[in-house]
Structures are given as C-alpha cells and as structure tokens.
Amino acid sequence: MSFKRLSISFVFLTFFLYAGLILSLFYFWKGGLLLETLFSERTLYSICLSLLAATVSTLLSIFIAVPSAYALSRFEFIGKRTIDTVLELPMIVSPAALGAMLLIFFNNPVGIWIQESGIIFVFAVSGIILAQFITTAGIATRLIKAVMDEIPQRYEDVARSLGASPVKAFFTITIPLAKRGIIVSSILTWAKALGEFGATITIAGSMAMKTETLPIAIFMRLASADIEGTVVLILILISMGLGILYSVRLLMRKPPYA
Amino acid sequence: MLEIKDVSIRAGEFAVKGISLNVEDSACHVIIGPTGSGKTIFLEAIMGFKKLSSGEIRLGKKNITDMPAEQRGISYLPQDLALFPHLNVKENILYGLKIKGITDRQYFDLADDLIDTLGIKHLLNRVTHNLSGGERQRVALVRAIATGNKYLLLDEPFSALHEGMKSELWFLLKELQERYRLTVLMVTHDVEEAFLLADTISIMINGRLEQTGKKEEVYRYPATIDTAEFFGIRNLFDAEITDKGNIVRCKELNAELFVKASLDNRLKNLKIGIRAEDIMILRTGRTITGQDNIIEGIITDIFRKGATDIVLFKPQNSKRIIEIEMPFYAFQKLDIKKGLSAGVIIKAECIFCLQNSHDQEGY
What's the per-residue H, E or C state across B269-320? Predict the structure, then answer.
C-alpha cells in the first residue's frame, strides 16, 4: 500500500469513527418524537438559551480577543510568554475544573462581594455566559493571534508613513485584512461555546427552564433514561454545530480580497 | 535636509553602529551594501519603527528622533511595496489624503498629475493583487508621493523586477525625483541601480558605513578592502611603498607601478586595487608615452559575458592573475586568443590604494 493510500485510509478511519457514532443514534430513533421534542417548550427554551448564551459569550470573547491577539502578535512586553501560556489554560484544564475554579472564586471574599453587589453568577444564566466566556476567550485569542501573525506589519508601517496614527492603521488596515479570519474565529468560538457543558453545569447547575442549555438538556434526558429524547436533542445539537462549521468552510473557500 | 547623527540601532545580536550622513534637499542618496548589512533596519529606524540606541535624526530644523512615524512627513516604500490588498488602486493612492482628512484641491491635482505621469489611469479601479510587478511599483510610487511628503525612503523597491522593467522604473523615479523635488534615501544591493540613481552614495557593510561620497568619487576610489570587494573588484594586490616618489612595488605582480594617489609614507604595506575595466590590453607595436604602467605576460583564459568579455592575464614571473574587462568590439579588433603573449597598460590614476587592514580606512 502506498503512503498516500495509507494516509487517506486514516482519514476515512477517523470519519467512520464519528459517522458510526452518529449513525448509531438512529437505533433509538423515533420519527414521531422529533417534532414533539423540538417544539416542546423545554427544548425551545434550551435552544434559545444556548443560542443566547453562546452569542453573548462569543461577543465578549472576541471583544477581548481582538486587541489581546494584536498585542501578542505585534509587541514585545514583560510577561508576554507567561500570558501566552496561560491563554492555553482552557485547552489543558478540563471544563469541569474551570467551572470548579469559578465556583471556588465566587466563594471567596471577592467573589462573594461581586455576587452581593447584584451580579449573580452561581446557578444563574449569567453564570452560563461566564463559564462559556472563560472556556472560549483564550481559544479565541489564540485563533485571532494566528490571523494577525499572517498580516505583515509592513502594511501598518506604510499606513503610518502615509499619516495614519497607530489606531487608524489598526482600524483601516489591520482589522479589514483580519476580518475574514476574525469571522471564522468567531464562528468556531461560538460553536465551542454552544457545546460547552462541564464548566456550565458546575457553576450554573442543571435547573430545567432556568439554566438548561442544550448540552445540559441532553445530560438531564440521559440521566432520566429518556434515550429517544436524548437522541433527538443530540441530533439537534449536531445539526446546529455542523451547520455552523459548513458555513465556516464556505467562508474559507472564497478568495480573501476578490 | 535629512540629517542622521551618530545613529546606533540594536536588533538582537545584530547592531547598526554610529551612522552619520546628510541627505541634501531634492537629492538622491543611495545606501548600498550586501544583504544583511543592516540597510532595512536603518531605514526603519529613520521612519521611527525601530528605536535608536543612540543618536539623533533631524529633518530640516526639526529633531524627529522621538516623533511618531505618522508625524514625520516621510513616505516609506518597503521591498514588497505593501500595497493594501483590501483596497483598489485608487483607494490605495488616496489612502494618505483620506486618512489625514485632506480636502485641499492641490493634493488631488498632484495625485492626478502623478497618475497621468506614470500612466496608471486605466488601473484605478483594479484590485492590487493581480497587477504586474511594474504596475505595482508605479502604484506604490504614486501612493508614496501623492500624500504630499517630500521625503521618500525606498527599501530595495526594484529588486523583484526583471532587468528591462527595472531600468524603465529607474528613469521614471529619477524623473519624479527631479520634477517634484523629492529628497530620496534609498537602500539597495544593486551597484548599477545605485550609481544610476544616486547623487551621493554610502557603502554599508556589517552595520557600519564604510564610505560616503559623491558617486564618481566612491566609484573611482573605494575606501576600504570590504568596499572594493563588494564592488566586485578582484584586482587587489599587496604592495609596498618605495622611496622612488609615487612608485609602489607589487611583488604579487612582479612589477613596480606608478600611482597618482598620494601615498602615506608612514605605511609600509598597502593594497592596490584596479578595476577590471580600467586595464587595457596593449596592441603589438603600439608606443606608450607618459606615466602609464606596462606589464608583460600571457592571456590565460577568456570568458564571454555578453556585451563585454573577461580576459584573465598572468604577468611574467607572477602567480597572480589580473582580471581585465573589455568591450566585445575591442576584443575582436585586437584578435585576442588564449595563450597569446601580450602587455597590459594600467594608467596611474586608475590605481587606488587601500590600507592593508579591514579595520582602517583607505585613502
């Protein structure tokens, strides 16, 4: 077998691994249950809550990630390497541990003061957003930094020689050039936030019609041995996720400045 | 005038050290040197993109050492031109005016004039990534000048072009510089480009300026061995000063040579250099007058270069070879062949002298 064929066979092996898992869902598939589950008040709440929380946490992550990524890409400063490493925390620490860290934080004096000042995070929707933000901000920064690294600094240098201040050069040159990469990073961040479970359930709990995001709803259905309902929710989550990833592929296919 | 006073820049292990030079208003100064000699870092420091370790930069009466790049009034053209890929040609050209909020008609007239001069009107609505190399150059030049800056820093802008396009753009740049009275500081490693465009030239090697002067002077009298070697001068020979006036003894060529350069008698050893194109092969029977040096020997090899030929000549009782470059027509007329016994003439004023050390300047 040639090396080319061998490597392609590994691609198919990986594909069939996931495809097999998806196909196995249909063993418990009950056609009539799809619409009933999809349009139930609880499922719709879960979908809406998931979309809302993922969108808000993604916006917050991108808002923080764009300037952070720019600074990490362009400047040398004290602590840069340490910060760069800490940004990988969500990738090396399990989401449940991140959620536990949040829970512990809100049980220390600073956290208690924040909660008593009126912003409740523990067992609340804001907790879901915070958990998703914590798990995605570092990843979003890492993704956007890779985008910024691809844009030569000379563009900004030339813009400055033509009279643009650093801020103007950033908004008129860097951001337009990074736009496509930022959109792709946002979609991937959003997809990651949408599927977030560990940190969310640790800090926000699993209260039906309150903190029940789609992944939590799947967990709760499974915990109550409702396999058919679980299958429907999983398929809804997969459809949303794959839909998003397909749109990313479409965006990537277009030439950047045609 | 752009004044650079004792500027040093550190970039990791590499350093540009103690550079001083003046670029007169409306003149073109070219810094020439091999790749990795610190030319680009130096330009970036003048632009304010790199911090100086020491020194001062002045533009006219203004000290611009700590001034932000956008306030310096200097346009910068990097090697890859950095045309903004998300803007079309027209938007690229007008970027500087738009960003500075300039609405003054005279600037737009200047842009129109430049667009006409460089013949790029038909490109205005095109995206930049499918322009040819020459078109990209033109657009980048227009963009740099249209903003109204009178100072232009060019970092090897023609290096990616083929020879024909290069020479076309050299003349165009010269025309623009004279027409708009631009003060140009350019770096390049292309010797031909440097001598064609420059009024004054500096040679930068290993982060140091080896020599600065009028281009004729730099061409005729390289100041250091490094400079001579960078110019591709291979006729460099050890010599020693004699007590017979302006005569040096060159053991390597087995000859005593009369030189016009004034000799520092405190030095015993020196190196003499002769450009390959300054040596003439002597036609049999021709009488020579004056103080020209004649060396007898044999033609050992001939290489065809195109418009010129390289002839290798070995003086009698010498192990060294003299490289001679001569036009093809002269080569044919003299009927030069490999193995031919011949003489060569080296005019005294064509011999330059260098101190036989890499650390000290020539004279």
Answer: EEEEEECHHHEEEECCCCCCCCCCEEEEEEEEEEEECCCEEEEEEEECCCCC
